[in-house]
Amino acid sequence: MSSGQQQQNREELDARARQGETVVPGGTGGKSLEAQEHLAEGRSRGGQTRKEQLGTKGFQQMGRKGGLSTMDQSGRERA
Predict the structure, then answer these.
(1) Minimal CA–CA distance to 24: which of 15, 16, 33?
(2) CB 39 within 8 Å of CB 30
(3) Is 0.90 surpassed by the pTM of this model?
(4) Which residues contact 28 (CB under 8 A, 6 or more apart)?
(5) pLDDT tens, residue order, the chain (79 aa)
(6) Which candidate, 24, 48, 18, 49, places its Cα nearest to that of 38?
(7) Rounded CA gap, 18 and 13, in Å?
(8) Which segments show compositional bias classed as Basic and acidic residues (predicted)?
(9) How far apart are CA 57 and CA 65, in angstroms?
(10) How far is the first Cα of the chain from the last one, in angstroms, to the nearest whole number?
(11) 37: which residues sit within 8 A by CB, 6+ positions away?
């Protein structure tokens, strides 16, 4: 693919992205092609970093717990 064709394709995707279509996997909510690319990159990297910090088991546990258990504990201590 020549660079001219590639540029045209990007412009087409950008136009679709500006109309609210998601053109990059993981780029949901981006208002342009570039914004969607940044979102997709940040999302995948953010998940990887958390997974590395907690390890796979900790990552799964965090998903199960949600945010309620910590509020529940502190509520009991104050009462």
Answers:
(1) 33
(2) yes
(3) no
(4) 22, 36, 39
(5) 566 777 788 888 888 878 878 787 777 777 777 877 887 877 766 666 666 666 666 656 656 655 555 555 555 555 5
(6) 24
(7) 9
(8) 9-19, 34-54
(9) 12
(10) 68
(11) 24, 27, 30
